[in-house]
Task: structure prediction
Amino acid sequence: MLWYVKKHYIKVRAIGNLVLYIIRLVYFFVLRDSLRRHHLSED
Result:
C-alpha cells in the first residue's frame, strides 16, 4: 500500500513540476510579447 502511495506521489509531483514549467514558459512568452509591444508603441 505504501509503495503504491509513494509511486502515485512521485507521479503527482512530476505532473506538478510539468504544470509549473508550462506556466513559467507561458508567462515568459506573454511578458516578452508585452515588452515587445511596449517598445513598438514607444517608437
Residues 1-43 form one domain. The chain has a mean pLDDT of 89. Helices lie at 2-42. The CA atoms of residues 1 and 7 lie 10 Å apart.
